[in-house]
Structures are given as C-alpha cells and as structure tokens.
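Q: Structure tokens for this one, please.
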Amino acid sequence: MTNTNHSWTALGDPTRRTIFELLAEHPRSVTDVARVLPVTRSAVSQHLKVLKKAKLVADTPAGKQRIYHVEREGLAALRNELDRFWMKTLAAYKQAVEQPPKE
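A: Here is the predicted structure, written as tokens:
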C-alpha cells in the first residue's frame, strides 16, 4: 500500500480525522488532544500511531511529552493525489460536454 493509500485509510476514521484537524490548528501533545475528545489518552496514542505511519503527522520531543504536528510532506502527497483525481474528473467532464449529442 502506498503512503497516500495509507493516508486515505487513516483519515477514513472520524476520530483520526478530528485529531488531524486539531493538529492542523496547532501542534499538540497526546494529553492536549485527549482533553478535547471523548476518548482516552491511550486511544489518542493509537490513532496518532496510525496517522504517523501514514506520514500525516510527526512528533518532536518536548521534555517528557511528544508534540504532534501535521507532516507537510505527507499532506502535500495527499493533496497531489487529490489534485490528480480532480484533473482527471474535469478532463472527463470536458470530454463528455464537448461530445456532439447522439441522435
């Protein structure tokens, strides 16, 4: 499975998508994320592990904690894939619209 496939799968879970959105606002620790969500710190850690494996988030040590943030390269790869999909869709639409009507 490619990294972008991992990204789509990772973001398919509503809790992970919410965590990703929170990290897009600003970097946070596991504890900070868990305070906002109705899940345990342990569950947040597991979700972050999946997002990290998908290369959507990264972490940096800060004392005894790790601060998680959106991984720009992983997000850029996901965006590129979405842009390719969108361009193919627009090209197909253009072709369909420009075809003469069938009689």
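A few notes: The longest strand covers residues 57-62. DSSP finds five helices and three strands in the chain.
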